[in-house]
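Annex B. Sample input.
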Amino acid sequence: MSPVWPLEFMVTTLAFSYVMTWVFNRSGESMPLVMLLHTSVNNYFSVAWTDLFPHGTVENTTHAFLLASVLAAAVVLVVTRGRLGLAATPG
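Annex B, continued. Sample output.
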């Protein structure tokens, strides 16, 4: 295993947590919806990805999810101006 793998995993996890936080905030704090999102992503990369790209390696899958997570997190952060769908507090 490459020593870079834990760093890539941590960056992916952090980036995807921004997306899941946005879904949680925008869905009225629906934990089942966040769980469904997490399960869907896991199933996609473990089942559908291997069917779509049978010659792909584990490294390719890891890098694809890293790139997708970082891109999605960046979009969510820019569009929500860092609020992640949380309503502004009056005051």
